[in-house]
Specification:
homodimer; 2 domains
Chain lengths: 195, 195
């Protein structure tokens, strides 16, 4: 998402071609099977140019997903305050982003894409373990490999019920009620006793 | 799902025509907007014949969704034992159905359909509030309108992460580990203190 921060995006055609090549590669070969080198070759440019436009492979992935926000940046202040109360802080931050109508419509497009049969690989290989996982793992003292996916299971369920299908009353519940009701669950997954 | 219990389904063409009319109506008008009378008219049969083939509108809805199991029957023994320990029992039953490969592939087809833009109405108007909601509501002493959707938010997240996208390790976690780790969360939503 570097280009969205106001940096001159370079020749628009070349940038768009790199992004199209990246999308095709992520869709066809998944997150792990995609390399900056192969994307560059497919777009007919030097790998250094891909790095220049998009940063790392994770950055390129977020750009290809057309994420309107960078979850790593959004979550950084949540993580900085440590594990105490992180469940509620995490949800409050999550809701402040998702409840914004303009951001929500763009995030829903991403969700529909990664929930499709072709897109699931991106979510399970790329988005959760590579983009969000390492950030959340900083909040847990042990077993991030179990705790982070459990957090994901509740947050994904919240995305589907509150935003994707808009199930009452999940869809209309004031954000602070969601924080108070679901926050303890996120906290349990992050720091509670797990068998 | 009455017809799947071995009852003679009647003239196959008529039954199939009623089901096709029901699917079209649920898809176009949603759960609330569909009536047995309108489905019968659309299929050119008497409403009594629709009742005879499919039972109630809820039954017709489950048949139209092609659910391989009737969640009301599956959940009945869970509910019969009351709220104590219901979170773990609910998950154990849920997993015993979903972890069966033949049932899972059919349930995933239903999930893909109800998560699509056209299908979401069926999930939020029909499946959760009408089919599953009243069963789960028997387990809660107060505020079923909040507790049941919260349970749904975690169960839907489990379906998406464990089955739909098969996120490691949610996808490979032994059922009893899921029961032990997520069961307390379901129990919290059913009977815990909620602000």
């Amino acid at each position: 998402m570097r280009a969205s921060r106001g940096r001159r995006p370079g020749a628009p055609d070349t940038r768009a071609e790199v992004l199209a090549a990246a999308r095709a590669s992520f869709a066809e070969k998944g997150f792990r099977g995609t390399t900056i080198r192969a994307v560059a070759a497919s777009a007919g440019v030097d790998p250094a140019l891909v790095h220049h436009y998009f940063g790392t492979k994770d950055d390129l992935f977020l750009a290809a997903l057309e994420m309107p926000v960078d979850p790593r940046e959004v979550l950084a202040p949540v993580v900085a305050l440590g594990p105490d109360g992180a469940g509620e802080r995490l949800l409050r931050t999550f809701l402040s982003v998702w409840d914004d109508p303009e951001i929500q419509v763009r995030l829903l497009a991403v969700v529909r894409s990664v929930l499709s049969e072709d897109g699931a690989t991106l979510l399970k290989e790329g988005f959760i373990p590579v983009v969000v996982g390492p950030v959340l793992a900083q909040l847990v003292a042990d077993r991030p490999d179990v705790r982070v996916p459990l957090v994901a299971s509740q947050v994904v369920g919240l995305i589907v019920t509150r935003y994707l299908i808009a199930l009452p009353p999940m869809a209309t519940m004031p954000a602070e009620d969601v924080v108070a009701r679901v926050g303890p669950v996120i906290q349990h997954y992050l720091t509670g006793d797990l068998p």
